[in-house]
Predict the 3D structure of the following.
Amino acid sequence: MKNKLIISTALFILLFGRCGKADRFETENGDSTPPGKVTLKEYKPLFGGARFFYTIPKDEDLLGVEAVYTNKSNQSFTFMSSYFVDSLDVYGFGSMDEYTVQLYAVDRSGNRSDALDVKVTPMEPAYTRVAKTIQAKAGFSSFFLDWQNELKQNINVYVEYEFNQGSGPRKLTSVFSSNLLADRRFINNLNLPSNEKVKVKVKVEDTYGNATEFVDKGEFTLLEDIKIPKQGWTIPNPNDSVGGVPMMFGNGLEGRSLKVIDDIIDRGDNLNFLHTQSRGKTGRSADGNMPWNFIIDLGGYYEISRIITVQRHSGGLANVTRGQYYRTENVGMYNVYIWDEPTQKWEQVFKEYKIPVPVGLTELEFVKFGEAGDMAYMYPDNPRYTKATRKFRFEAVKGFSGNYTLDDANCLSEITLYGKKAQ
C-alpha cells in the first residue's frame, strides 16, 4: 500500500524553528502510552477535501493530529497538523462520494490514539472542475487549449492529438502542469495542409492520482501562414517619426538595431541584439528608457498572423546556461500596432502581452526555450490575419523584473513575423 505524508506548515515551523517549548519534541525513550482520542466538533466540506475542527486530548507530550484516508485505488494519504491548531485540512478526494477519514492524536514518541472514524462528503474536486472548462481552438500551424482553475490547485493536462502525415496516421501526447487561475498552452509546429484535420482529446489529473477519462474536444483544420521574408525590411533612423511615433535608439554599447531584423539570434557569443543604453524612448537620454518603439517597413503589404520575439541571451560561449533569458534587460511585456493607410494612423492590434516565464526548467532547457523564441498571435483569442499593412510597430512596455513592473528592458535580439502577402 502506497502511503503519502503531508505535513502542515505550522508543524514544520514547530519542528525546525526556534521555540521556547523545543524540549516538547525531544524523543522520550520508553514512552508507549498512547494519547486519548480526538473529539470532533464538526467538519466542513471543501473542493475535493474536508476541514476538520476538533478538540485535542490533554497530554503533555502531544505532537499533533493525523488524518488518514484510503482512496479507491487503495492509496493511503496522511495529513498532519500541530497541537497548536484546532483544525486540519484533508485533500485528494476524487469524487463527491462519501469517504471515511480516521483522525488520530499522535505524541512525540510516535504513539497513536484510537482512531476516530468520520464519514465525509466533499465538494467537487478541482481536477474535474478544470476539465469542464477546457476549450481547444485552431491556430496557425498549431492549436491551443484554454482552461480555468479557480482553486489554483496543481493539475496536469494531458493532450492527445491525432492527424495524418506522410505515410499514415500519427498519435502524440503532450502534458502540461499548471496551478494558474487561467492558463493557455500551445501545440506548435504541426505544419499540416489545409485539408488535414487534427483530432484532440484531453484529460486532467491532480497530484493525488485522480484523473478524468480522455474527453473528445473535436477535430478541426489548422490555419496556414508563412514566414514574412525579411530581405525587404527596413527601419527608420533613431528619433525619426512615423505617424507621430519616434523610432527608438538601439545602437548603444554593443547593441545594434539592425540586428533585430537580420534573422540571427543572440547566442551569447555573437552580441546579436539591440541595446537602448536607456535612450530607447525617443533616442534622447533625458527622456528615459520605456516604453520604446521599434518600427519596421515590411517592404510590401502583408496580412500578419503572429509574431515571434527572441531575447538577448549573453549566457556564455557554450550556450548551456540560462544567461539573461526571461530576466533583467529583456522585454517581458509589449504592445503591437499596424499602420492603417486610410486613416494614416497606428492601429493597436493587442495590448500588454506578457511573455510567460517558464518554471521548473534546467539551465539547458531555458536555453532551448529562449532560442526557440516566444510566439504570440495578433488576435490571441480568435486567431486571424490583420488587415493589409506595410508598417509594423513593436512597443516595449516593461521588463520581466518585479513581475513585469520595472522599466529595465533595454535589449531585444530578434523579431520574426508570419502572415501572408496581401492581394
